[in-house]
């Protein structure tokens, strides 16, 4: 029942995204276009501009939410998130470096994946040190590493070609206007669903702690390694699709757990649907709030995520 409700809400968010904008399309006109009729101008506006962008937003939001859910299970910490822990920053630095040397397409995505993986290993390695990591130590390490990536991004912007700066800045703030299409994100979402659902029971056990998981027969190291790689890959594809978007991976999984508990068989698919819905609606708001001008969608998600993060940090004392 929860998933059915989220599917209905997700479809409604996509309809809102294709119907609302600087040019509002009435429900009757929208229905005519979806049925293959209607004004040719509306068909062009929907199928070539709004629908690909809405699907890219949905795919990116789903990827970030699942990455956040995986990290929170792995670390048993509701404050874990690709943005907060510096994973998004590492992916952004690597992607920008690839752009500055003239690479594009798959090379940028591959660079972002390497950057996300390096950042993940760096944060966990520094937080572990010579002993065991704690949630507070991991969080502080992630914040410091994220600040370091931010400094590198600033340096790249300072030395980069002037003509590339506006696009790079909007991309870093999270902007779907420059997305290269929704299909990589949506395809990875489908693969993620197929891969993670058989692992949901093992993730439920892992959430109770590595010792209990090992005692119950879970291959802890292999599962943790798979989660590391999967979260890095999800973050990398999300960053290359829409730039660095904050707090989706923090807000969505935590709110779902508050409503439906901590069963990963529900939380993981629900994160895909709820994360995609949230970013789709946020991007629609970013397009229409000061239309015909557009805001970066990262501004909207940050306005939602910052107070939520502070509230969770307050509760975690």
Automatic annotation (TrEMBL):
GO terms for biological process: siderophore-iron import into cell. It holds the Pfam family FecCD. Its main location: membrane. GO terms for cellular component: plasma membrane. It comes from the Bacteria. Coiled coil: none annotated. Keywords: Cell membrane, Membrane, Transmembrane, Transmembrane helix, Transport. InterPro entries: ABC_BtuC-like (IPR037294), ABC_transptr_permease_BtuC (IPR000522). Belongs to the binding-protein-dependent transport system permease family. FecCD subfamily. This is ABC transporter permease.
């Amino acid at each position: 029942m929860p998933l059915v409700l989220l599917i209905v809400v997700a479809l409604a968010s996509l309809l809102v995204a294709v119907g609302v904008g600087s040019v509002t399309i009435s429900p009757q006109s929208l229905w005519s276009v979806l049925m293959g009729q209607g004004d040719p101008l509306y068909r062009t506006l929907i199928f070539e501009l709004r629908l690909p962008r809405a699907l890219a937003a949905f795919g990116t939001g789903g990827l970030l939410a699942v990455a956040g859910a995986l990290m929170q299970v792995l670390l048993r910490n509701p404050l874990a998130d690709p943005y907060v822990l510096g994973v998004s920053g590492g992916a952004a630095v690597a992607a920008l470096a690839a752009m500055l040397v003239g690479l594009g397409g798959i090379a940028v995505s591959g660079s972002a994946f390497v950057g996300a993986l390096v950042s993940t290993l760096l944060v966990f390695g520094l937080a572990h040190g010579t002993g065991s990591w704690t949630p507070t130590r991991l969080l502080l390490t992630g914040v410091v590493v994220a600040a370091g990536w931010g400094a590198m991004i600033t340096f790249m912007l300072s030395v980069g070609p002037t003509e590339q700066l506006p696009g790079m800045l909007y991309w870093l703030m999270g902007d779907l206007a420059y997305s290269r299409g929704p299909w990589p994100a949506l395809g990875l979402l489908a693969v993620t669903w197929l891969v993670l659902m058989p692992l949901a029971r093992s993730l439920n056990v892992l959430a109770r702690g590595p010792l209990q998981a090992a005692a119950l027969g879970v291959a802890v190291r292999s599962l943790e390694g798979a989660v590391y790689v999967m979260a890095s890959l999800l973050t990398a594809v999300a960053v290359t699709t829409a730039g660095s978007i904050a707090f989706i991976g923090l807000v969505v999984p935590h709110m779902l757990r508050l409503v439906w508990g901590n069963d990963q068989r529900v939380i993981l698919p629900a994160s895909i649907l709820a994360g995609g819905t949230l970013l789709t609606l946020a991007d629609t708001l970013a397009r229409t709030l000061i239309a015909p001008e557009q805001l970066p969608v990262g501004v909207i998600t940050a306005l939602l995520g910052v107070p939520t993060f502070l509230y969770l940090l307050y509760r975690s004392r």
